[in-house]
Amino acid sequence: MKKMTFAIAAAVFLAAVPTHAAQFWYEPITNLAGGCITTNSPSVNLTVTNFSNWYPHAPGSAFGGTPYDMFIVTNTYTSGAGQSGKRLRVDGTKSEYIMRLFDPVATNTFSSGKLFASFVASANFVPAAGVGTYFAAFNDAGAAGSLNATNGFEFRARVFEIGATNAYPFTNRVAGCYRLGLANALNDPSRSGGNLANTLFVPMDLKGSIDYQVVVKYDLDASSCSMWVNPSSESDTALWTGPTGDFGPITNGLAGYLFRQITPGGTMDVRDIAVGTTFGDVMTNVLANTVVQVATNFNTSTNFPGTPALLEVFPTSVGGGTLTYQWSHISGGATNAVAGGTSQALVIPQVAATDAGNYFCTVANAGGKTAVSTTNFLISVKANAGLGFQAQPASVGGTIGAQLNLSCTVTGSGPYSISWYLNGNQLTDGQPATANGGDASVVLGSTTPTLTVKNLSTNETGDFYVLVSTAAAVTPNSIQSTNAHVVVNQPQAVNIAFLRNLENKDSTSSTYWQITNTTDLFAISNAVVISYTNTSGVGGYWIQDATGGINLFVSSDATFIPHLGDIVNAVGVLSSFSHSLEMAVFVDPTSPSFSPYASATVVGHTNWLPAPMVFSPYSLTNNSGLMETNIEGRIVMITNVYFTNAVGTTTGTGATSVTTTNAQGDPIVVFFPGTRDLDVVGRAYPKFAWTITGYMSQFKSGTYGPAGYEVGVTRWDDIQTNPPPAVTATITRTGNDVVLNWPAVPWQQSVGGAYAYTVLSSTAVTGPYTPLAGGLTFSTTNGTYVDTNAASTPKFYKISSP
Which residue in 68, 317, 378, 639 has the most C-beta neighbors within 10 A? Predict the structure, then answer.
């Protein structure tokens, strides 16, 4: 798991009196004022000693990032007590975690037994097909007594909102529908190449702006979880999924329930949140009081005979349990029940003229309450026609390791039989595109209008075409597309500056300063490892070449363990974590982003490291172009640093962030990746440091902002608390230039710590002295500075640090 940094805040709003002996709390939300949920009380106490209800977490906390952007909103909804009432909006375009402890007074934790949570949710925004992330989960309390209290890293029983995908041949699914998924602690589709294999889904398509009650069960003894949508009892299994396991027992015990907003999630509006130890504790609706509601949307299907049609209804019955369906067909003035039309989706594999007409659906819940959809569901059937291409596959270029997508659009009577070919050879799903040696490509969709070839190699250079035929008695009944010529090239050899310039520079875009190419492989060489050890996961290392720096994330390769000063070559794709640019090398075949052509190799070692850039003033973070293209990812040094608010505390046993200030009181965050880097664990913060050396990164979810920058320290000795040694400079003259040389303390592999140097001059020995050059650091044992055209005027010089 990659590093996550949090801070906490406390409010003074008290929990409602439990209605069940084992219910921890119930929060209807509709009784709260509009605005930020964590400030929904008379005052906010930002300490860990005065516990209250909802705690904000970084990056959306007062300690950094966008403060308090999880809001209570007022809107109009379709069902339940919250109609026209207030909701907690969990917004996937913003960045905050909030958690409420099981006990807001004492941090009670559970390491055995069962936990239940429920809430009523309405999707205000549905992400694109196959996209989404988890927005709710149980969590532990982190390290007791530290700033991470009420903020752990378990994130169990994750609840996902994932945009529903259209699958051939039923491609007319209603837009804006989604499914609710469940995974424990292993999976997040938004951060694993879109992989949904480890996520279980409740077997019901859901529609935005409709209320559904979600009930989650976590079995701590079995380390597994289950989820229901709109159940009337724990035994309801029609709208249930589970159990799903995870990677083992929890470490600290679960202590609270959280909601999480992060890109690229959807947006959920939530009310009626309850947490307890039994199913009955969290049921805020009962069967006797629930009704069935059906969305007023409708969908249509217009196609040729022999092709499929799909109609789908979107009902809800909060607390109503199992739903039953009956579709009816209106044609020629008569209404008839559709045989077999007893599911949420009405699927007709091959339409005929007799299927044309309007449809509606009657829905009933377990208590016998019913509702009827509109009659605007429509199937239109065209006249028989011969096959033709509305669109044919186009010639494209590709890069080794990337993904090829070719598509066509077919018209005419079906059913269709589709086959894709490369250089005259038919392609087969799950197999390489060719039988040539070293071909690790994988073919998908070879019998559909869209062909995908993953893990391209140079073997895939050639001509692709598609052959379509039909069993219908039409002419023509078989057609072949023109050739799509594909050229696959070797990974492009680039420097890090080139990669950094691939970020989106459009400030009006939601992906401002995020990477624009996440599929092509790129090759970099002779980059120096500038982090003392891995900072995240198994293989997260910071590297720098002569042009810039970047994080090198080598996934699941325990053999790749470079050291500070090692020189590496790498081939990988670009990605980002909280806006920090990464080169990702996926070498694990089980990973959805695996590439057989990716690699990371140590090719040498140097005892001298790139000279740190003295980062001053801190307002440079407001210059996004400079930070993103020239500074982020590089080794930097900050000088005259004060830990005033952290004195007397330690870095703890996990990833820790602390806000420091310079002599002017300007803040900057310093991050210690202690979850992986034991050298910075349990260290007492000093009051003052002459210099701090580390990599410049970001930890900012959601939209880009300058508040996310931080300096990552991977070696405790790089916090220099000893005064710099006195230096004596030698002065020589070269023409009209004055050359100063002195023994500097550089940043090097074998010795932690370094100093920044400033050259000052004056026309009088008593001063005043003014800086000629500040923030000089050196990758050799000697410092040097040339004062050009200075010999004609008498000058006196001083060398100081910093």
Answer: 317
